[in-house]
Amino acid sequence: MSSHTGEVEPMPGYLDLITRASTVMLGAWRDCSTCGLELSKRTLLDNAYITLTEIALFFFCAFLWTQIRRGLTESLFKPLAQRWRLLPKDAAKMPESAWKLVFYTMSWSYSTYLLFFTSYSFFHDPPSVFYNWKSGMSVPTDIAIAYLIQGSFYGHSIYATVYMDAWRKDSAVMVVHHIITLALISFSYAFRYHNVGILVLFLHDINDIQLEFTKLNVYLKSRGGGYYLLNDVLSNMGSVSFSITWFWFRLYWFPLKVLYATCVSSLQLVPSIPFYFFFNALLLALLLMNIYWFLFIVVFVVKVLKLKEVNDVREYEDEDGSRAAADLLKNQEAENNDDGAGHHISAPGKHVQNGINKEKHL
User: Fold this and answer.
1) Are 120 and 195 in contact (CB under 8 A)?
2) What are the helix (H) ranges across the chain?
3) Of 42, 69, 95, 178, which has the fewest beta carbons less than 10 angstroms from its beta carbon?
4) Tally of CA atoms within 13 A in the half-sphere of 267 that contains its CB
5) What is the pTM of this model?
6) Cα angle for residues 159, 165, 167 (degrees, 5° grid)
7) Would you say 123 and 116 are in contact if contact means Cβ atoms under 8 Å apart?
8) Which among 191, 200, 202 is positioned nearest to 277, based on CA atoms?
């Protein structure tokens, strides 16, 4: 069982993280003379605690998320897309964004509640995730609920990315991300690293809220052949806040709070902690994917600054969708001309033309 002094350790810098984590990990690797498949198998059997009921609940909830998404898409999101007269390309992708916005807002709000409005001190004192840790300890009900919600959602998301979502340049990486995330959620629950898991989920979900909010406003700014300034401003504000918080949460707080705790503090507090290398390898893989996506974000921000147009650089070219959008705009413009002054605010000609010719809308 681990112990602690009660003093909150100050958050390290990047250099401190790299030097101390590499020193501790190399030392642990050298000291682990019995490391191998046999020890891993024995450790797995001795420390993994998960019941058949929990596994059944996971599959049931994953199926439930899929059905809830289908139901909301048919009864709410698609009718809204038709009512708002979204461009065909945007109408096809709007339900995916609306669904993700609903889910991530709910899940991140719950993680925020756990970290800031209860007695858990994991955010302000990350090493505390390992205080009093012991194999097979009971998982508090409020954290177990968060794990069931998140784990089943990522189980659903693996299926959804392949069969329900629009396929993008990074969709294959997205599937790998979902598998790694599900592995982290499942194993961290089974090995009772649930405290770390809540912190990881909190630091990652906020970006998904901003991403889907931005995408929805991109779809809405050109609805019905008009131009809506409010949605344009909101999409630009969303893209800026998304870029800032991606770096702040995933590339600053995540490595300096979570990775430092799992690489350094964990061995100090629990010297014989099981699957130390396995969990840290998965968390490092998650960090590398965050860096990979940050490169997309940098390209995205440069394009916004140069073109004053929010685009998703992950999208494939879609000539048919673009042509359909152009035709729809032409038809609606002709109708507006016949009917006289329309109720929409007209976009400057150059801006509308850019909107028609862009084949990479979010």
Assistant:
1) yes
2) 14-31, 37-47, 52-72, 78-83, 88-116, 141-163, 171-190, 194-221, 229-245, 260, 266-269, 276-307, 319-339, 349-357
3) 42
4) 21
5) 0.78
6) 105
7) yes
8) 191
